[in-house]
Predict the structure.
Amino acid sequence: MSRARATPDPLARLRALAPPPAEPVEPADPRRWPAVEQELGTALPADYKALTAVYGSGRFDELLWLFSPFAPRGPGNLLDERRTTLDAYEQTRRRFPARLPLPPFPEPGGLLPLGRSDNGNELYWLTEGAPDAWGVVLFGGRSTDHEVHRLGVAAFLAGVLSGGTPTPLLPDDLPRRAAHTFTPFT
């Protein structure tokens, strides 16, 4: 009789790959999620909420970082980045509609900014269906090249770091690193 091996949940896989800090900087505050979601005009995925509670604000491998509604207002704050990033996306989409077919949030199935990389990559949620079913859209640095990954945020990050989610839009050496890190913002 064959037994299926238990697969850890995506956040557990991510924690094993890139251990979270003992004391996260700006971790999620569960009491504040309702106000955040009201201001955004949508609920957010449970895996993102759990990830922000465990990791707080910071970068994976000194490269990838997620916007957080608990970061100080301004760059890196999910609520502020939503406005500025979507404004820039909409301007570029008007110039290159064929290369940017995905609409901006709050249009149905629209892109909602999620994070970026130090190489200029941008991460968005693809807001199709219920929040826990949202995928991640990765844009190449300063380009309209993009990929749709039908994975939650934690599964996407774990896949990128482990090499299980290959992408030509991020550095080739990322999944080959001997160890992965998460560095809190200070």
